[in-house]
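Known limitations

Files may contain more than one protein. Parsers should not assume a single record per file. Below, a two-record file is shown to illustrate correct handling: read the sequence, read the token line, then continue until end of file.
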Amino acid sequence: MLRILFALLFFTSVLPAQTALSFRPILDGRVLRSGADNAAGHDGAVAGARRVEVLRWYLSDIRFLQDGTTVFTPAKRHHLLDLEAPAGLNLQLATPPGLNYDEVSFTLGVDSLTAASGAFGGDLDPTRGMYWTWRSGYINFKLEGTDPECPVRQNRFQFHVGGFQGPFASQREVTLKVSPAAIVPVYLNLDRFFKTVNVKKQYQVMSPNEASAKMADLLAELFSAERQSS
């Protein structure tokens, strides 16, 4: 019996822990949910609400750091976050037990070497709707929906931010100060996005250019470890 108990204790001691990066997009001051009616009244116009219908992005090369030094890097390099996926925007990572860290770092988008190598499987499979077959490259961030202020058919906005070649490469590094926890919240401030991007004038980005590069800069700034006001 003691041998069995010892074996069980040893086995559980070497099992990896689980750390979840819980991404929480904020629109109109509330967290968007998978399968929900993700609409927001703005400027008091609840009846004509802005609505987010597609929200997806790639994360690459996640790192946990302590005092500026990398202490753990998960084996899987690329992850697709999708608001409408069954797991929503919760990214489960196997981490060493007792891992100490004070920062989490990641690349927003797919790294240039991978992007230049063509299509892959898994999260990088082109059937996920995040690959430009016409130019052999990944869309790093996709945001689609409707807004009554968009002066186009069906009031649709479409922002597909991608590209891996200069001068319009759209991969961006993000580093956040965090505290170790089983669930680490990461907020995405879409309210700030729509305050910065005037959908009356800019309602579509569909290829790498100066506008998409500037939008990539903005997107990287929207992530935070604490909930922020718009």
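...continuing to the second record:
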Amino acid sequence: MLGDIRESAYEDGWSGGDTPLVAAKLNSPIAATSKGLTNIRLYYLSMDNKLCEFCYDSGKGWYQGALTNSGFPVAAYTSIAACFLLGSTLKLRVYAQVADNSIQEFGYDSDSNGWQKMTNLGQALTGTSIATCSYSGPAGLSIRTYLQTPNLDLIEKAYDHGKSWYTGGFSIRQAIPRASLAVCAFNASKSGVSLRVYYSGKNDVLLEKAYDGSWYDGGFNQPCIPGSKVACIAWGSVQIRVYFQNGTDVTAVSEWCWNGGWVAGKGALPPA
């Protein structure tokens, strides 16, 4: 069976969500990334558990992406995470769990090379959530990818320009199994970066881990429905939005906003 993927948009107010963009495997994971809204990329699974890509480019509209034709098989229970790399050209990284339960990186750097398998980030818990972000920091290009290990720890896999991947300083010991994960980066410069990781805690709450030179417990603490996924976005210095299910209208996606303090945003994103 197929499930429709829809887009809700904020342009001086929330709208949309009524018209399907594309059909995916029922209960497919979804990941999306954008480059200034000029380029949007959406990732999901086909019926036979292969990575698919749906693309939007300003002036061109929506179309099926090249990753779909690459036919990369992944685990049926995978999550997906995706990010654009900073720079004037379109470069992308997608992370998914493959059949041996490791996390595989797929990369696109140019039309001539197309999509390729890149670094394998090692073993993870079966069905782990995956979150990723990229930024231009002290080392130049940096990527941070978050996952859950087989012993239930939430960890960070880190890439800095000119170095190999390594395990970073972020760690949540003995998290709940298959904890949801989301990450955003902001205030990136040659002197540092700020990161925010949102994750499922015990007793159906979403929590925040913050990095501003070192990791500490953030102030976000909100109840959610069991198994809620979480997504986030940050811009400027600093606006943050977090999206999850807290039981509003039973299944609606709700918004929380940071602008110097946490406040409730849209209670139920359309089409709820």
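Parsers that stop after the first record will miss the second one. For reference, the second record is described as follows. The mean pLDDT is 97.
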